[in-house]
């Protein structure tokens, strides 16, 4: 028996809500907490909605052409500092990659990571 | 919900798992004592593990910290509680203390997590990454940073949408939203306080524009930009993603300034700014870097040579006190300052400003203790009952202090202080065994 299986067995034998003997199925504990808390905090919902909207706008804009932060800010009508934050996050998550720097060595372009 | 459980016993409780607390724990453990090392963060390593390089040698900070953290994590005599807090410390006899440890749920069973990051990829949430000082986002299911220890995911429950995507993606079923806060009753023989320091909040000096002018950042944010695990592909202005070429450092922000309640020198700001200036000259060879200072305090071994080296590399040092930083067209910044040597008011334009913020005490440490008083010094650092002869002793017999919990100091001095504290603690334990 692997350590993980042993642990699951131990959980099942204990008073933990997790496991075969408990009321919560392993791998579905998020549902347990969601029900226990009576839903999801509004702030988390709003934050997710905002991020998904911005991500969609940025990826759509980059489908048309590679953009610098300033160009992206103009295209989606968002302050440049917010663009930096979201665009760099999308680079981190692998949706976007860094392109070339301009002739003045000042601004990089960003492109879709296809 | 709290789930009170178990009594646990150790020889020593070390509060704070930064470089000083880790060193104390290792010294005690290597002598055969059982140690409980507690930190409120999700990883051991403290502030040092977040740094790019150290001064004056420019050695890689992570390369020094990581082997030490690994040794601490694998030591059979050390138990580590991360995401945990200590309270209610009571002295009940000559060599016995009791305390409570509150262990907050990580919602991940650390022993089963392989740090594969599949939960991170699956999580749909994006929030500001506190380990990159807000420069970039992270997921709600996340590995705190690449060299964290324990290397395991955690769930940011405040921002989690409880969608269950992380659980579905996890190959080892280690994500567990049924975890609850645990409170443990602890019996120990000695306590070492190694709670480190806090950084001055630059927003408390609105004339410098931090938080308002997007190209004014703190030195800790620049530290992340310079680190190998940096948030951006290179050094960029967070205001518009421009590669900066005229960078200013403002020293003594929130230190040596009674008007903000911190009249003392932070001891490390001059040198970490000079270090960063040298690293910037390497990363951006065409950039101009200016350091505005009141006095350069290069008092340590090799510090003066390091300062002279920066001058030789072309870093511009201006003896000047900054009055105000204003944002001008294009996100650039106008610094109005008193040129101390010339006795004149001057203005200079830069495209990025880094505030070298000062060191403050971590407050509330004295509140950990119930029936004894942990005396603080006039600046709210932990008081040393005999600063010259026994610098690790505090006002409570059996409670010792290490590192920057006693006052501002650099990394080598923190490690020396930890050595002193562990020696005192070992001596105390042996005498009472």
3D architecture notes:
The complex is a heterodimer of chains A (114) and B (433). Chain A is built from 5 helices and 2 strands; from the N terminus they run αααααββ. With 114 residues, chain A is mainly α. Chain A folds into 2 domains: 3-37, no CATH class; 42-112, Winged helix-like DNA-binding domain superfamily/Winged helix DNA-binding domain (Arc Repressor Mutant, subunit A). In chain A, strands 1-2 form a two-stranded antiparallel sheet. In chain A, a hairpin with a 6-residue loop joins strand 1 (96-101) and strand 2 (108-112). In chain A, helix 4 packs across helix 5. The relative contact order of chain A is 0.09. The model of chain A is unreliable at 1-9 (pLDDT under 50). Chain B is built from 8 helices and 22 strands. Chain B has helices at residues 19-30, 61-74, 118-122, 165-169, 219-226, 269-283, 303-313, 411-431, and strands at 2-9, 12-15, 35-38, 78-81, 84-93, 96-103, 127-128, 137-138, 141-142, 154-155, 181-188, 190-193, 197-199, 216-218, 246-253, 288-293, 316-327, 333-339, 344-350, 352-357, 359-361, 399-401. The radius of gyration of chain B is 23 Å and the shape is globular. With 433 residues, chain B is an alpha/beta fold. The model of chain B has no long low-confidence stretch (mean pLDDT 95). Chain B has 3 domains: 2-105 and 180-196 and 362-431, FAD/NAD(P)-binding domain (3-Layer(bba) Sandwich); 107-175, Alpha-Beta Plaits; 200-359, 3-Layer(bba) Sandwich (FAD/NAD(P)-binding domain). In chain B, helix 1 packs parallel to helix 8 (411-431) and helix 5 (219-226) packs parallel to helix 6 (269-283). A 7-stranded mixed sheet of chain B has the order 14-20-15-16-17-18-19. At the A-B interface, helix 1, helix 2, helix 3, helix 4 and helix 5 of A face strand 7 and helix 4 of B.
């Amino acid at each position: 028996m692997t350590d993980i299986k042993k642990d699951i067995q131990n959980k099942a034998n204990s008073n933990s809500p997790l496991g075969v003997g408990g009321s919560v199925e392993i791998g579905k504990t998020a549902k347990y907490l969601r029900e226990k808390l009576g839903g999801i905090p509004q702030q988390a919902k709003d934050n997710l909605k905002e991020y998904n909207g911005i991500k969609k706008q940025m990826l759509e804009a980059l489908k048309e052409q590679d953009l610098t932060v300033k160009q992206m800010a103009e295209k989606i009508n968002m302050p440049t500092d917010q663009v930096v934050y979201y665009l760099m996050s999308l680079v981190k998550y692998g949706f976007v990659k860094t392109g070339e720097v301009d002739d003045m060595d000042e601004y990089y372009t960003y492109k879709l990571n296809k | 919900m709290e789930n009170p459980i178990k009594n646990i016993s150790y020889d020593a409780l070390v509060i704070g798992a930064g470089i000083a607390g880790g060193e104390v724990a290792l010294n005690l453990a290597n002598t055969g004592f059982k140690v409980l090392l507690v930190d409120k963060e999700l990883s051991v390593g403290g502030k040092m593990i977040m740094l790019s390089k150290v001064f004056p040698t420019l050695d890689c900070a992570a390369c020094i910290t990581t082997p030490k953290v690994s040794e601490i994590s694998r030591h059979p005599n050390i138990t580590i509680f991360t995401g945990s807090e200590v309270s209610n410390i009571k002295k009940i006899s000559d060599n016995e203390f009791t305390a409570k440890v509150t262990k907050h749920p990580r919602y991940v069973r650390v022993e089963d997590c392989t740090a594969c990051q599949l939960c991170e990829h699956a999580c749909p949430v994006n929030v500001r990454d506190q380990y990159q000082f807000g420069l970039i986002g992270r997921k709600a299911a996340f590995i705190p940073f690449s060299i964290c220890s324990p290397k395991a995911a955690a769930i940011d429950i405040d921002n989690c949408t409880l969608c269950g995507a992380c659980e579905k993606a996890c190959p080892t079923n280690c994500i567990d939203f049924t975890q609850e806060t645990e409170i443990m009753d602890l019996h120990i023989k000695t306590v070492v306080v190694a709670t480190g320091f806090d950084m001055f909040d630059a927003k408390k000096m609105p004339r410098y524009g931090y938080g308002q002018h997007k190209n004014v950042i703190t030195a800790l944010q620049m530290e992340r930009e310079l680190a190998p695990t940096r948030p951006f592909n290179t050094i960029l202005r967070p205001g518009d993603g421009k590669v900066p070429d005229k960078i200013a450092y403002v020293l003594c922000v929130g230190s040596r300034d009674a008007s903000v309640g911190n009249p003392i020198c932070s001891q490390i700001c001059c040198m970490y700014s000079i270090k960063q200036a040298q690293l910037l000259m390497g990363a951006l060879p065409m950039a101009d870097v200016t350091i505005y200072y009141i006095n350069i305090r290069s008092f340590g071994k090799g510090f003066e040579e390091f300062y002279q080296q920066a001058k030789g590399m072309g870093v511009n040092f201006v003896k000047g006190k900054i009055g105000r930083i204003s944002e001008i067209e294009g996100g650039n910044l106008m610094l109005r300052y008193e040129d101390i040597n010339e006795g004149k008011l001057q203005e200079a334009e830069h495209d990025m400003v880094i505030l070298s913020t000062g060191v403050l005490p971590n407050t509330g440490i004295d509140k950990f203790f119930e029936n004894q008083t942990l005396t603080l010094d006039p600046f709210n650092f932990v008081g040393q009952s005999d600063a010259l002869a026994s610098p690790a002793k505090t006002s409570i017999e059996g409670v010792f202090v290490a590192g920057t919990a006693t006052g501002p100091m650099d990394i080598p001095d923190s490690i020396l202080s930890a050595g002193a504290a562990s020696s005192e603690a070992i001596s105390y334990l042996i005498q009472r065994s």
